[in-house]
Amino acid sequence: MTIEVRNLVKKFGSFAALDGVDLKVDNGELLALLGPSGSGKTTLLRIIAGLDWPDSGEVSFNGEDALAQGARERHVGFVFQHYALFRHMTVFENVAFGLRVQPRAVRRDEATIRARVKDLLDLVQLDWLADRYPSQLSGGQRQRIALARALAIEPRILLLDEPFGALDAKVRKELRKWLRSLHHEINVTSIFVTHDQEEALEVANRVVVMDKGRIEQIGSPNEVYESPATAFVHGFIGESIELPVHVADGVVRLGSRPLGLAVDGLASGASRLFVRRHDMQVGPAGSGAFEGAVQHVRNFGPVQRAEVALFGGETIEIDAPRDKELRAGDRIGLEPRRYRIFAGG
Amino acid sequence: MTLQIADTVSLSPSQAKARAHAAAARDNLRTEPRAVRIAIITLAVLFLTVFVVLPLVVVFAQAFSKGILAYLAALSEPEALAAIRLTLLVALISVGLNLVFGLVAAWAIAKFDFRGKTFLITLIDLPFSVSPVISGLVFVLLFGAQGYFGGWLREHDIQILFAVPGIALATTFVTFPFVARALIPLMHEQGTQEEEAAISLGASGLQTFFRVTLPNIKWGVLYGVLLCNARAMGEFGAVSVVSGHIRGETNTMPLLVEILYNEYQFVAAFAIASLLAMLALITLIAKTVLERHLGEGHASRDH
Lengths: 345, 303
Prior knowledge:
heterodimer, A: 345 residues, Rossmann fold, CATH 2.40.50.140, 2 domains, 5-stranded antiparallel sheet, B: 303 residues, 15 helices, flat, cell membrane (chain B), Sulfate transport system permease protein CysW (chain B)
């Protein structure tokens, strides 16, 4: 199932939750909608599911107009952030719900329903919980039951709203891997919403980065990380150093200090320079684009994180390899191995 | 932390004593002095006795003052039986109507956003803030001989005032808020996610209501019905205005109690009153049980 979204606009009062969104999702993709809260990602998901309606724009599934159908007819599996399991039903009945409410003409007989539910519970590896109630399950178990329930109707599309948002860190990591392998197994076009970049980059084939109701960038996890299209994406994904610089006549300055960095066709004026923390190469004082004094150093697994007060006022954090000895008080030079400059203050 | 460590070490008697003192001192911080405690508790018990227990005892004492036979005889008077029948009928009608109205209103208010929602909530509370006598008078103004629809009703030979429909209408009006009030906070708290889940799984509106919404609020519904019923059976003011006090026909139990009392038939009056008192007691017990169920629902939602 392919999904196509064209020029979607949705306003809540004067707040534009979606401000002209275009998106194409290919068959069998596992797509992440990534963005801070209020970026419109959940609204987009709910509109695709038919739980919300846009003010204008189009949504089509396989070229058919989806907005002509209600949520009930769209055959979309939706996994809610807080699972929304039916609290008065057992796990078994929760999963069976979508099969039991089908019109009589197409409803399967009891034995078939039971077999299908059992298969689904096996798929999420929770068949032993069939007779429990949702309140008796852990967060991770509820999440998987919610997924099994959504899959019961053989959805054409699977939508997940912050699927791991309410879980603790360890369970979250396990479920991520599990979701990816499950998607591999069932191969349903899937979209999940997350504000966690690590989650998006690790699980999805493609990542859509959103901010303020607009799409900032669409690309593979590698693309959005390695070549961010906008200042927002660079700041949001990966840990970046952001410095306010000034571009004039092909020269980039931090304060009054010329940095000696190349600018290609960037207009003059206030700009922002982005460098990944680990892309700052440490050298002796006097070398490199920046110069500063180390404030303090913390050791962090494979790297050491140093706080450096640049001459010119800004204080930045860099990640340097452990073999490079850094001490508080050292004066060092810094050269960005890779950087991006975006126009605008 | 240090206290826990000390616990593992065996204590000498003097140490134990010192600790008991310390514990007593700690408790004292949280409680009032003994004299104050006793005074407050006595006051509360006295108040409850005078205003709640004593009247209840008096009702039953008066009802049985001429023995159980007189009590039973008073209850089996045709007038008494008619009043009981009428009260049950009116309660059945008004609770039934308010169950439907209350469910629909709570559903609309808790699950949807629309213009005029606050106004609707205020309207639902209106019967609580209007004196029941006024509520009754409204129906007299509407359906009475000189009322807006009075002429039309007489032409078509429809009797509303001084008959069962009028009493049922007035009671329904007065008891309108109970079911809706019991359900709105409950449904509001439960949100709409389960309904959305049901619809995205292919359930129709009715299926969603009967399979998801209703099971989730069933204890709240019972709670509202219980309170609504208690009020419907006990309503005096509004019913008094519209009933016409026709003996054996339009007297409900509370009205009959008043009439019998005014005629110095104390045993009969208190016998009927004792039935209403028992209804109140049963309602209280059922309410406690239901509140426990509602509480459980709460707990299971939270984790």
